[in-house]
UniProtKB/TrEMBL annotation:
Domain (Rhodanese): residue spans on this chain: 57-157
InterPro entries: Rhodanese-like_dom (IPR001763), Rhodanese-like_dom_sf (IPR036873)
Domain of life: Bacteria
Pfam families on file: Rhodanese
SUPFAM superfamilies reported for this sequence: Rhodanese/Cell cycle control phosphatase (SSF52821)
Protein name: Rhodanese-like domain-containing protein
Gene3D superfamilies linked to this entry: Rhodanese-like domain (3.40.250.10)
Membrane among keywords: yes
Keyword Signal: no
Length: 163
């Protein structure tokens, strides 16, 4: 008699566990679909973070950290990078000034995980910048690699302003 009384409770518990498992799989699957199919791609060239750092240090590329100031404060800015928030209304002008008004200057964009830099790279190329590179690993890592911070590459403290 007790088994019959417990059966509906077990069934509800089993259903709940099944629904939670399905929800987890759907979420994980959705993230996988996003990273494989919906993740923005950049049609131009890209650099891994170690190469971006090397080229920024030797001056062959202008490395631009396009993240927000609160992100710069949390993680610092990549060593050798210029911090220019991509949301600035005058972003293109600030970027052009940092590039010495040379639209052909090699410019590498870095963000947190390579999503914003890919999108912005496409827009800048369409706007006439001739040599835009993406750093798809970003600061925090992505499917492209572990990222700037995980590799222990140097960062500069954010001084509270962008260029």
């Amino acid at each position: 008699m007790m088994d019959k009384e417990l059966a509906p409770a077990r069934t509800r518990h089993d259903r709940r566990r099944t629904l939670i498992g399905l929800l987890f799989l759907a979420t994980a699957g959705g993230l996988s679909v996003y990273s494989v199919f919906l993740r923005p791609t950049y049609s131009g060239a890209s650099l891994d973070v170690a190469e971006a750092h090397r080229q920024a240090r030797d001056g062959s590329v202008l490395l631009i950290d396009i993240r927000r100031p609160d992100e710069w404060e949390r993680t610092g800015i990549p060593d050798g990078a210029h911090a220019i928030d991509m949301r600035r209304p005058d972003f293109s002008g600030a970027l052009l000034a940092a590039a010495g008004h040379d639209r052909a200057r090699a410019i590498a964009l870095i963000c947190a995980r390579g999503v914003r830099s890919a999108k912005l790279g496409e827009r800048l190329t369409a706007a006439g910048f001739e040599n835009v590179l993406n750093v798809p690993e970003g600061m925090l890592g992505s499917s492209a690699g572990p990222g700037w911070l995980a590799l222990g590459l140097p960062v500069q403290h954010h001084a509270g302003h962008s260029e």
